[in-house]
Amino acid sequence: MSGFVVACDGSSHSGEAAKLAAQLAKATDQTLTLLTVFPNAEIERMVVSGIMPEKIDEEVAAFGEEAFHAAKEAVGDTAELAEDVLLRGDPAKQILDYLEKHPGSHLVLGRRGHSLVRSLTLGSVSEKVVRHADAPVTVVTE
Fold first, then answer.
1. What total of structural domains would you count in the chain?
2. What is the value of pTM for the model shown?
3. Any alpha helices (H) in the chain, and if so which ranges?
């Protein structure tokens, strides 16, 4: 299925990306998929803290609900929403895997704007995705 995909995490940056993705989807008469990834690092932190697996599942679901709710508020009724996709793992890798499995998709994501030093030493999800994606990617900055 082709169309627009917006990576969302509940931040203002992903809200801006959702707005643009919705406008692009409407202008091109395509659907919009909301995609969010619960990071492995957070799951690992929860496991080390002794949180039970069912509680982790609840946290993951709550994270997804919050991210999707924020994106849907940003989108409003601008575009037709195809689906909500909640994944777990390394955000950049999961986004890239999703794009590979859904050829013809166009990803829109926000850039958090970390400092230059942090971006150079750690990299960012948006930079990793842009560097490795085999699909069109639009990065929205505030």
1. 1
2. 0.89
3. 12-27, 40-48, 53-75, 91-101, 116-122, 125-132
Position of tokens 């998709």?
Answer: 105
Bridge partners (DSSP) listed for residue 37:
87
Q: Tens of pLDDT along 72-90?
A: 999 999 998 999 999 999 9
Location of structure tokens 């926000």: 110
- DSSP annotation of 76 reads T
Interatomic CA distance for residues 133 and 137, integer angstroms: 8
For residue 105, the cross-strand partners are 3
Kindly report the backbone phi and psi dihedral angles of residue 112, in degrees, each rounded to the nearest multiple of 5, phi listed first: -75, -20
Using the structure block, give the residue that is written with the tokens 């946290």.
59
CATH of the domain at 61: 3.40.50.620
Closest among 26, 43, 32, 24 to 1, alpha carbons compared:
32
Residue 73: strand, helix, or coil: helix
